[in-house]
């Protein structure tokens, strides 16, 4: 649905050139929810804004639904942009207009006849769960409700793609969850492809299928969210994952361990097969659990356990071999003393 090839965005400032996006290549498939994460200044907004040409890329290629947007200008570009909705952290609703008028405004701009507008706005309000707020002004709404109005407005012209710029960053955790559920519903029911940028890894874990991690304008890691959580390659990916699930053992605890410290990772249904208890039953080994959890990413379990193993060296070796044979990943974090 979105093909980005060698895309760069260079800003010219008084103090010289700044590389907002540096030679990024990635593709977003039709119907997926794609997350782009990175710290402040990584280039997320610049990249997102290039997708609908709010920023014109300095070089590179960009197609959305088969259309090369970079060659369009004027009316053809305006029409192509109608197929790309966008929502923002700070909603950007028109304060002097009611909820109804805010949404109808997007339809009016697209020259939808007045009669059709009424029906369409009613449907959109129902979709985002705000039919009862039709005639109130934005100042009378909570942050979550304002974002729902912004989502309805972004969907007004039946876009194929929805771009979300830190859409939940100004919301509390409960409201964030409800907005993420709404985005999931929109993705599934309306088959809209979603690209979101965020600095919160839990947002990506909650709803994205695939993701890219950006740093200094470049994509440093990319792939299925599950795979990145299960085996991150870069230090940056590990840092972002640690902000959601951390398996660090305090130094004092690690130092008091005599046996080897191992991290065992179970992917998918293996997580529920009781591999560790089978191992401890079959071998003369004791396991001292120091950390452990089963996370659910896109409803697929990912189990990670850190434990100290106690027993004879050979017996521990055999036990670890057995765990690996049962399709789990074993990483020895520290040898025993
Ligand atoms: N209009 C602009 N003019 C000059 N430099 C810019 C402009 N917009 C962004 N930049 C620079 O481009 C780089 C990437 O910024 P960008 O806003 O895309 O990052 P970000 O990851 O979205 O960060 P944040 O989460 O803080 O918004 C930064 O160094 C920033 O200072």
UniProtKB/TrEMBL annotation:
This is Methionine import ATP-binding protein MetN 2. Residues 2-241 form the ABC transporter domain. One of its GO terms (biological process) is amino acid transport. Signal peptide: none annotated. The lineage of its organism: Bacteria, Bacillati, Bacillota, Bacilli, Bacillales. One of its GO terms (molecular function) is ATP hydrolysis activity. Transmembrane segments: none annotated. Belongs to the ABC transporter superfamily. One of its GO terms (cellular component) is plasma membrane. It comes from Robertmurraya siralis. Keywords: Amino-acid transport, ATP-binding, Cell membrane, Membrane, Nucleotide-binding, Translocase, Transport.
